Amino acid sequence: MSRQRRLAQAGVILLLCAIVVIGWGLAAFERAVAARIAAFEAPRTGVEVVDRNGALLRAFASDDGRWRLDAGADDVDPRYLAMLLAWEDKRFADHGGVDPRAFLRAAWETLIHRHIVSGGSTLTMQVARMLGRLPTGSLAAKGEQVLVAVALERTLSKAEILSLYLQLAPYGGNLEGIRAASLSFFGKEPKRLTAAEAALLVALPQSPERYRPDRYPDRAKAARDRVLNRMEVLGVLDARETGRAEREAMPAGRRALPMLAAHAAVRLLGEEPERSRIRLTIDKGVQQRLEAYARDKAKTLKKPVSLAILVSDAATGEVLAQVGSPDLFDRGRQGFVDLTRALRSPGSTLKPLIYGLAFERGLAHPESLVDDSPGGFAGYTPQNFDRVFEGVITARRALQLSRNLPAVELLSAVGPARLLHRMKRAGARPELGDRSLPGLAIGLGGLGLTLEDLVRIYGGIANGGVAMPLHVEQDAAVGQGKRILSPQAAWYVTSILAGATTTTKGSPGDVAYKTGTSYGYRDAWTVGYDGKHVVGVWLGRPDGAPVAGLVGQDSAAPVMRDVFARLGPTTRLPGPPPGILASAGGGLPPPMRRVGRAAELTQAGLLPEIVFPPNAAKVEIGLGQGQGADLFLKVRNGRPPFTWYVDGRPVVRDALERQSNWRASEPGFVDIAVVDAAGAAARSQVFVE
Is-catalytic flag, 118? Predict the structure, then answer.
């Protein structure tokens, strides 16, 4: 065999061996890639709690203790993406995970300069390194990067690979991903970044610990400026933008990630810990303003006195803001306790529902006369909060003054069980303690309710008598609303709580509200509503101990007004529904003119009578000249002393004479009433001019 033939045979054998080796290598490579594809698992991001519009309220760290949030290209500034790709991987859209050109360029530069000038890793290879927590500078690690990068390119789209980079890029400490970094260093989402901010976020992952701006601001600035200058060379930025960006101050340090609606977030996450995203009905702007207000307000309260605020939409039952405590980390006020869900005595806050039930059942009308004088009810002898008794007054005035005796008398007529049933229909969960049956004491706070419960009840009154299910989770299944009062009864109550003087004059204001103080000054309440929002406020000690001088009208009502001021312009309360009985005095049906003990006084013959001005009269007293004038008031029968009321407000007290006078300031209809020493009353409605 000739030499030439032997060489040809050897070449064929070598070629076949090379083919076999290459084939075996390709097969091994494919098996390795397939194994990486099978083993791929997307990294878990921290749980996000977002508001009704998707804005971040609170974030939780991932299982490994790192701040890592879900992110995609739509979540970041387009200029940042342009800088990132220009700096890290210009051919990202074209290669299959490994860029041979980049490898050759990196090898040539290393050979020429005798040290590493630039890396050959693509963005996909960097994602592979981050996923596997692989070291840099190792040939084995580099090989693993290549395998995983190819697996990623075969499994995911370019957008999904970019999203992984945006989630995993290291920024120092326990910060991973652009959203956590932007929130921590700039206090904002990366949707809109300045050129300087974008450049810093591009530079930091190159050496996250070395360039940390909170520890090494000079190094961080130098790294940022290198990116800016490179972007100017590449045409991503112009010279003026670069100059302005280089003058921009560096972040002074790390900020805390958002922690709004903390109590609701923790509770809902505890109920379903596997969720990655929780959507709340809360409005972030409102929540921020009210949490800031609560912290400022708490500084004026002596520890451990705390407060809670709850705001809902009456028409939908959605919670718009929920402040369980002024500061989650304030141990002195037990800030970790969600006080919107703490059981407390509601004081007088249930009286509107009691009156509403009496109005609904035809037992009373806002202009019915009730007796506010000492008395007992089946062994129960309540007292008024101020130990003062008004005698016979209208139901409207009794509720506005929060008189206890008329409320208990009406509850006795309505029935405590019916009151309890309507509370439960509103979604409240009243706690009776060891009592199996409710008694009359529940009308004055003798049971346990939460601030959430009261907002449910008042939301029903505000919504024309229909209580919508109160809910804070956007995606929760919400049932139908349930009627707790007739539309007419609900409007009567609203008219009273808004401060109207008579049914005929309707509602004069934009906000209806009621205060309450529990026994022993333990809890101060105010719940109010306008045509849209329901605002509930509680003040007290988390441990339930008494607080001297803690009264709803003085402590909680100002907070409610401050909350409404932070909600924006109030929405006017609705007008009356059909079926309203806009009458008073003799215009009411006889059984509704006097209720309970007030009717008994009539039967006893102790009836005063207004002689002047007579009912339905038109009295000229010279108001047309633009000055005030006196209207004479005369009464016969009854026992002195007499108290005269005009439009429900006392104008003459303890008059021993049967003639008095009141100075009118403007023309119009006025309601005049007189109450004698026995509590008997008479009324007259006249027009003065």
Answer: no
